Amino acid sequence: MKTHQIDVTRWSAGTPDAAFAALADEAYWPDWSPMDSGELEQPGPDDPHGLGAIRCFRTGRSVSRERVVAFAPPHHFAYELLSGLPLRNYRADVELRPRDGGTEIHWHSTFHAKVPMTGWIYRLALTRFIGQVADGLAAHAAVTTGSGAPSAPR
Q1: For residues 92 and 101, what is the distance between their CA atoms, to the nearest angstrom?
Q2: For residue 76, which of 42, 107, 34 has the smallest C-alpha distance?
Q3: How far apart are alpha carbons 53 and 43 in whole angstroms?
């Protein structure tokens, strides 16, 4: 089974702390991403949005669920897809590194397609989607840097 990979890198004028705060709290995703809603289905044992948390995102009629598998503020956040797309072993790692007075956002995803010969389609669609999400995160982190908290969810 072929492993598909996606790598998206963006730069933000915001700090890693601001980017991580927005990334970790699913309720704020509709403010800066294409997601219509983000909800915490099950809080993590140590931090509600941390390791073990299960999050649910809606975009149109599509609903995806994911589990937080790495939570190391403000530099590393990772999640695994539990349901929502016909993919196996989907994992995304988001690394936030200080660079040029701001933050480099590197979003790396790997997955296997459940249906043979469809992986390339999902890789193309997800590369575009993750690019939009990373663009939104970069812009949001730049705006919220210095304010102490993301804007209120819509």
Answers
A1: 25
A2: 107
A3: 5
Rounded Cα distance between 145 and 142, Å, is 5
Asked if 53 and 67 count as a contact pair (C-beta separation under 8 A), the reply is yes
The Cα–Cα gap between 135 and 133 comes to: 5
| Structure tokens that stand for 30 in this block | 């509709």
- The first and second tokens of residue 102, run together, are 């701001």
Give the whole-angstrom CA distance, residue 26 versus residue 49: 8
pTM: 0.91
Cβ(133)–Cβ(25) below 8 Å: no
Domains of the chain: 4-144 (3.30.530.20)
Q: Which residue has the tokens 């988001």?
A: 94
Taking a C-beta distance cutoff of 8 angstroms, is the pair 132, 29 a contact?
Answer: no
Q: Is 20 exposed, middle or buried (0-12, 13-18, 19+ CB in 10 A)?
A: buried
Phi–psi pair at 48, nearest 5 degrees: -50, -35
Report how far residue 103's alpha carbon sits from residue 142's, in angstroms, rounded to the nearest whole number: 9
Tens-place pLDDT, residues 11-50? 999 999 999 999 999 999 999 999 999 999 999 999 999 9
Total Cβ atoms within 10 A of residue 150:
20
